[in-house]
Each structure stands twice: as C-alpha cells, then as structure tokens.
Amino acid sequence: MTREIRLTDEQRLDWLRLIRSENVGPRTFRALLNHYGGAHAALAALPDLARRGGAMRPIKVASIKDAECELAAARRRGISLVALGEPEYPLRLQAIDDAPPLLAVRGLLARLTEPAVGMVGSRNASAAGLTIAERLARELAEAGFIVVSGLARGIDAAAHHGSLTQGTVAVLAGGHDRPYPPEHVDLLQSITQHGAAVSEMPLGWVPRGRDFPRRNRLIAGLVLGVVVVEAARRSGSLITARRALDYGRDVFAVPGSPLDPRAAGTNELLKQGAALVSEARDVIAALAPMIERPPPEHPMEEPAPIAVSPAMLPDGDVREAIRALLGPTPVAVDDLIRWSGAPTPVVLTTLLELEVAGRLTRQAGGRVSVL
Questions:
Q1: pTM
Q2: Is 66 exposed, middle or buried (0-12, 13-18, 19+ CB in 10 A)?
Q3: Could you give phi then psi for residue 105, rounded to 5 degrees?
Q4: CA angle 223, 229, 230 (to 5 degrees)
Q5: Domain-by-domain residue ranges, the chain?
Q6: How far apart are CA 295 and CA 223, in angstroms?
Q7: How far apart are CA 265 and CA 242, in angstroms?
Q8: Which residues, including other chains, have CB under 8 Å from residue 264's CB and lie 6 or more apart?
Q9: Which tens digits make up the pLDDT trace of 5-36?
Q10: What are the backbone angles phi and psi of residue 334, rounded to the nearest 5°?
Q11: How far is CA 238 from the centre of its chain?
Q12: What is the pLDDT of residues 68-101, one digit of tens each?
C-alpha cells in the first residue's frame, strides 16, 4: 500500500521552488528528488548540475521570496497546493509518471477522489454535438461520475454545463487567475461551487499553445475513461485520447457524419478500436466495474537524504561518451548504462546534468532523448 505523506511548510516551499526552477519538469523533479534525497538538497545542486551539463548561462532557480509570494497568493484565492503523495492528491493522476509534484486546486478537494470520466471535443462544435455532450455529461453525473474537461469553448463547456450541479472538474492550461477562454470566468466560478478547478501552472500564467497538450495529459490522468465528442483529424482532443490509452484508460467516441470534418477524428478513433457511445449507459457499463479497482501505485515522497560522492560525478570523457550515445530517438536508461559501461550513478548524474542544462528530455516509460 502506498504510504501517504504530509509535507511540512518548509518542504512544500522547497517543492514549489524546485518545480518552478528552470528546466525542471515533473519527471526531472522526480529524478532530482530520488537522486539527492529531497528538494532542499536538489535546489542546492541545480547550479552546479547545469554548469557541468554545458549550460551557457547560470540556471534560474526559483527564489524563496517568489515561492512564498505564490503560496500566499494561492491562500488568498482559496487555492490549495496539494503535493503528490498527500491524501488529497488524486490517486489515478498520481499513478502517471509525469504527474505534477504540486497540484493547485480551487473548490471541493473531495471531488478529486471520486470516480471520473473525461469529456473532450471540438471547440467549433455543431449544435448536435453540443446537445449530446451536455446530455451525456448530465447522465454520467447523475450516475455518480465526476465529469472532467478543459473549460474550452464548444464540447468542453457543454460537458461542464451538463454536470454543473452534481459536480464537475475543470483542468486549466494556465494559472487559476488566467482561465482560457476569458469569457468562461463565470463558468469557472460556478464550477468551483460544486466541483473543482485544477492547474499545475503558477498564478499569472497565461496559457500558450504548448500548455494545452500538457493540460490534456492531466485530463487523461484524472479519469477512468475519456469520451470524445466531435474531433477533427488534428484535434487536441485526439492528444487526450492518445494519452488516455498510454495511461491504460478506456477511450470512447461518439460517431458522427462522414460528411462533417468535425467528426473525422472521432470516426477514426472508432476504426482504431475505441468504444462506440450513443448513450451514457454505454460508458457506465464499461466503467462501473473499474470504480472499486485501485489504480497502480506510483508513490512519491521525500526520500532519506543521501550524500553525492565524487565517484558519482562524471569526468569530461565519460560525459561525452554518454552524450554520444544519445540522440533524438528516445532510449531506455538501462540501455545507456549497458552500452556506456559506466557505473549507474555516473550515468544518472550525467543525465541530470544534461537535463538541468536544458539539453535532455525525459520521455514516457523512463526513456531519454536529446535534440
């Protein structure tokens, strides 16, 4: 059984500083915590890691003052920063390998522990698509499911409206004070009365294009399954569906007219094996047996502090030998260790150096790549 943790105020501040530091994402955060035994030690190591990894300038490490200001601003807005591993953190989201170390939640925390279904689709939805999305969401909510969506125009908004009174969860691409689109400010406020809004981004963050796929992974991570209603072939909704499949979630699709390009993506999902949905009972029947099944365990906690010995630090030749084995194609860390012949701690330290310097990316499944 996963051991629940509760961060101290000092640890929460360190976690916030670490995840807000340059070149530190969720996977990097986890690697740093495991390597250095805690966020405090990892913060101290960041500048030297970046320098040895070849960074052209000093890395920007989030300051204590900035982190304290963010925490204070969050409290004023009724936002809780829930840490991975704490009791309020959604267990299904915790099970994915790039789960946010800190999840900013406004509204009813308990909604995040209830069985949930994602619903996504076209922003430029048809009247028929909006109608069926709202109806499905209402019936799923009445059956006891929390409906999770991304607050976007079109299908997302219809899904939130349909499940509003029973409780729905909005996943934001930007900060809690920068909802997108701006005209959904009132909808967001209504959502937090009976449900919740979540974000991994800091307050003041205006969402950019690349933030929406990041948001989509959170939708997929929070739910038992994802329903797609109207999605074009290049729709962001298909990214959510792919991430759902990566995480072992069920994917459902509402069929549409072959003449409507807004249904081309959903129809393609059906060809690829997605479950066809014409009514809420189709989703409920598939997901009901999964409600009592616990998600896979993927614990997160502050490990016991460890000392990083000089033997863990690669010299220039070893670093370049490991770097030469890397490329744009993701490779497993175990394969790097095998082919380089270097000790495991040396390889892991080298990867951290390159990563903090902004030269390496961690992929799903523990693989790494460089551009």
A1: 0.88
A2: middle
A3: -125, 130
A4: 140
A5: 111-290
A6: 11
A7: 12
A8: 231, 232, 233
A9: 899 999 999 999 999 999 999 999 999 999 99
A10: -60, -35
A11: 16
A12: 999 999 999 999 999 999 999 999 999 998 999 9
Query: Looking at residue 291, what DSSP letter applies?
Result: T
Cβ-contact 39, 64 below 8 angstroms: no
Structure-token pair, residue 112: 């995040």
Q: Specify whether the CB–CB gap between 238 and 216 falls below 8 A.
A: no
Alpha-carbon distance 250 to 331, whole Å? Answer: 27
283 CA to centre of own chain = 23
Distance CA 239, CA 218 (A): 11
Q: Which residue has the higher pLDDT, 43 or 295?
A: 43
Q: Which CATH class is domain 111-290?
A: alpha beta
The whole-number average pLDDT for the span 138-149 is: 96
Could you read off the pLDDT of 306-360 as tens digits, one per residue?
555 555 566 677 778 888 888 888 898 888 888 888 888 888 888 888 889 888 8
Task: Tell whether the torsion through CA atoms of 325, 29, 26 and 115 is positive or negative.
Answer: positive
DSSP string, 127-183: HHHHHHHHHHHHHHHHTTPEEEE---TTHHHHHHHHTTTT-EEEEPSS-TTS-SSGG
pLDDT at 320: 81
Is there a contact between 169 and 196 (Cβ–Cβ < 8 Å)? yes
Closest CA to 207 of 224, 239, 240, 182: 182
Contacts of 350 (CB under 8 A, 6+ apart): 314, 318, 319, 322, 323, 342
